[in-house]
Design goal:
This protein is α+β, with helices and mostly antiparallel strands. The chain has three domains: 30 residues, no CATH class; 85 residues, Alpha-Beta Plaits, CATH 3.30.70; 34 residues, no CATH class. It is 22% helix and 35% strand. The chain has three helices and ten strands. The strands form three sheets. Strands 7-8-9-10 form a four-stranded antiparallel beta sheet, with no helix packed on it. Strands 1-2-3 form a three-stranded antiparallel beta sheet.
C-alpha cells in the first residue's frame, strides 16, 4: 500500500492494485480483513442424497477439514446439517484459515470439496442431484409402453383423453394421437 496526498494505492488479495481517492477512506466504510488478526472464516456447502447417515456424513466432512493443512483446528471446524432440501440433506463445513498471500481461499475450498467427494465415494455416500417426481392423475389406468432405440430411450404414456406423453431421457413432450 502507498498513501499519497490525494489518493492511495491498495493491493487486493488477488494481486490487483487499486487507486483509491483518500476521501473514500473518510466517507465510506472500510473493511480491513487483517487489521486485528489474520484469520478469516470460510464455508463449503455439501448436498447429500437422502438416505445417507447424517452422523457418517458429518464425520467424513470433519475428517476432510482435519486433514487439510490450511484449515485451522483452533477454533475447530464445524459441520452443520443446515437444511432438509428439496433433493438433499444440506450440510455446511465452516472453518477458519489464516490469510496470507501464498494461500488462496478458493483453492482451499476446492481441495476440500475434492477430498470430501473421495471420502464419500469410498463410503458409498452419494452427492445429491436434482430429481423430480411426476404424478399423473387419471380416471382410468394409464398404458405405459417402453421403447428402446439406439439413439434415445423413451416411454410413452397413453392417456384416456387420446393424448400421449412421451418421456425421453431428459425432456418431455406432449403429442396428440
Amino acid at each position: 500500500m502507498r498513501v499519497g496526498f490525494r489518493n492511495s494505492l491498495v493491493a487486493r488479495g488477488d494481486g490487483i492494485e487499486v487507486l483509491v481517492p483518500n476521501s473514500q477512506f473518510l466517507e465510506k466504510k472500510v473493511v480491513n480483513w487483517t487489521l486485528s488478526n489474520d484469520l478469516a472464516r470460510y464455508a463449503v456447502s455439501v448436498d447429500v442424497a437422502y438416505g445417507a447417515c447424517p452422523a457418517k456424513v458429518t464425520e467424513l466432512i470433519g475428517q476432510a477439514a482435519a486433514e487439510h493443512p490450511h484449515v485451522i483446528q483452533n477454533p475447530a471446524p464445524d459441520v452443520l446439517l443446515e437444511d432438509f432440501g428439496d433433493n438433499a440433506l444440506v450440510f455446511s463445513l465452516q472453518f477458519w484459515m489464516r490469510l496470507c498471500p501464498t494461500v488462496d481461499g478458493g483453492k482451499v475450498r476446492s481441495e476440500l470439496r475434492h477430498r470430501i467427494n473421495t471420502l464419500f465415494e469410498d463410503a458409498g455416500i452419494s452427492i445429491a442431484f436434482p430429481q423430480r417426481d411426476i404424478h399423473l392423475d387419471s380416471i382410468r389406468p394409464l398404458e405405459i409402453r417402453v421403447v428402446n432405440s439406439p439413439a434415445t430411450h423413451s416411454a410413452d404414456i397413453h392417456r384416456s383423453n387420446g393424448t400421449v406423453l412421451t418421456c425421453k431421457s431428459r425432456n418431455m413432450r406432449r403429442t396428440a394421437l
